[in-house]
Protein: Succinate semialdehyde dehydrogenase
Organism: Pseudoxanthobacter soli DSM 19599
Amino acid sequence: MVQLANPALLRDGGLIDGAWRQARSGETVAVTNPADGSVVGPVPRFSAQEVEQAIEAAEAAFGPWSQRAARERSAILKRWFELIVANADDLAAIMTAEQGKPLAEAKGEIVYAASFIEWFAEEAKRVYGDVIPAPQTDKRLIVLKQPVGICAAITPWNFPAAMITRKAAPALAAGCVMIVKPAEQTPLTALAIGQLAIEAGLPAGVLQIVTGEARTIGGVLTASDKVRKLSFTGSTEVGRILMAQCAPTIKRVSLELGGNAPFIVFDDADIEAAVVGAIASKYRNAGQTCVCANRLYVQSGIYDAFARRLAEEVAKLPVGAGTEKGVLIGPLIDDDAIAKVERHVEDAVSKGAHIVLGGKRHPLGGTFYEPTVITGVTPDMVVAREETFGPVAPLFRFETEEEVIAMANDTEFGLAAYFYTENARRTWRVAEALEYGMVGHNTGLISNEVAPFGGVKQSGIGREGSKYGIEEYLEIKYLCSAVR
Ligand code: ADP
């Protein structure tokens, strides 16, 4: 059991129309702790009909919510933000129990998640339209921004809090209402945040959280013509399916999908800074983020020195249950995740790569994997093409800038990319040549609430966070008024 200062945060119901509900069938889904396999709690397995009821409640809530003054919506969001920050320790404990990330990292995510609510509470008051100079003197042309309507969000397990607030905050700020389907591995963090939304005074039906079987819930939400928008974060594979399901009703979609982030270290880089950045980017959340460095390209002149320094530092990362003090690498989310990491490492080794550090399951057992560094990695290996989503740093060697740009862009993905150089002219050349939605120069950490997060190519559509994020939840209405 998770020990909480505020036990009301651990919910076993879904949030529909302002109340905590169980499935009428009585069916539940168990949430387990990836560190030891224990059951953290049950959540309801809602039926398609129960999801339809949530859509009806959303429909009833949308009118009044969208018609409130922006400053009223803003005030409620601000309270929600404050409550999340005040309950950060409990929320982090719930997150670590169901997701596995170290407590300090979980708390960091809670603060990050809350920052989107604070930001969009402020942006709610700044949804401006336009007045367009008319081509005729007897017309007045006005652009109004109006909320899209009922929105659905489907979110992943790697950021159980932030992926929800990054969608719900701009939606609610804009005057939309939202139904969230959290990942089946991590619904308890979502429900706890829902409890705080109630305490903040969010009216019934404005934010609802439905748990259960992904296909059933996703099917109802995408098929409904009342739901006007889907915001999804997850794999490209599932994003493609959901986008197709949204096609018959021409729903708006925002998609944050897979990445295959290159992390490029040029000969003229500050090696120590690059090692710190590589660790921050690669090993955060045990390598389970879509912006984690997946392919490390290191120029010949410093390849050996970088590999040695990286391995020395990675060897110091403590592995263990997220609740243990000082741990930096927790367990992977489940058996499939560790099987994928093993497959990637075995494939690389079978094709000639060399394991400098780690390379196998951790003695702790379960889904713990040793932080790993591999050298001699080449483009024919699976790690070059697929996201490993684990604590494995594969080091590719390159000779020229032209060659590394070609290799970095040789993927269907385009989410985040990183590069280290001290050369100003190269900085601009490389930043502009990388086909990615986000680029980190001399840093491995780029996400925050004020910057636009999102990808190009098959990494997604749309941007979250920043002043652009709220536009995803607004429609443009053009009003043409004849004055005589
Ligand atoms: P991950 O690899 O991060 O688990 P997924 O894309 O499989 O990524 O899952 C992300 C979210 O999408 C989760 O909430 C999951 O339940 C949901 N999901 C997976 N498959 C479907 C589907 N067919 N329909 C609707 N939601 C789905």
